[in-house]
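Quick one:
INPUT:
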């Protein structure tokens, strides 16, 4: 497997802007959020397991997962979250490992908002945190998404605190300005990762 970089950051930190920049440099990106959606598509074993555990109500008429109903159920029944994660996390991990192994770029990036919380950082050789103040996170996320500030604050509180992520990360980019400022910080890191990949 090639050199794997873990990329993470809280909601509204600019994680997607950073991963998109790396993709434009020809680097393969495996996105944990995309994988999480793929493993519960129609015909996937994880979807069948969710249906068997929770019941037919988790499916919509077309056979797809009713995400909203399941999300509301988990919100009311915290124990249900553990049951769901016991089904989905191993499937997500397996798919991520397979996709990382298939990458042909000089190095490969695993993007995950819960990189440290789910131990996905153990699949990487180095980690990069895209960091932003909570005030900036709320400002960006409320502009971009249709969620209200209270919902965004709940998401931030549910994620690992910035200070903890900063302790874990090998590299930290503070994304507190324009995109050009972000890209200027990513360029030298990209060159460093290319050099590290060559020594693997």
């Amino acid at each position: 497997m090639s050199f794997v970089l873990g990329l993470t950051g809280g909601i509204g930190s600019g994680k997607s802007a950073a991963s998109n920049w790396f993709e434009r440099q020809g680097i393969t990106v495996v996105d944990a959020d995309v994988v999480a959606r793929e493993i519960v598509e129609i015909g996937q074993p994880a979807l069948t397991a969710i249906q068997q555990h929770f019941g037919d109500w988790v499916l919509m008429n077309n056979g797809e997962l009713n995400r909203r109903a399941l999300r509301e159920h988990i919100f009311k029944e915290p124990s249900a979250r553990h049951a769901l994660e016991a089904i989905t996390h191993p499937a997500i991990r397996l798919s991520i490992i397979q996709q990382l192994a298939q990458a042909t770029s000089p190095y490969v990036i695993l993007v995950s908002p819960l990189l440290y919380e789910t131990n996905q950082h153990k699949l990487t050789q180095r980690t990069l945190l895209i960091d932003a103040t909570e005030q900036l996170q709320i400002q960006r996320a409320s502009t971009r998404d249709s969620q209200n500030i209270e919902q965004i604050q709940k998401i931030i509180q549910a994620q690992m605190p910035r200070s903890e992520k900063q302790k874990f990360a090998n590299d930290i980019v503070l994304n507190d300005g324009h995109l050009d400022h972000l890209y200027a910080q990513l360029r030298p890191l990209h060159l460093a990762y290319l050099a590290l990949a060559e020594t693997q």
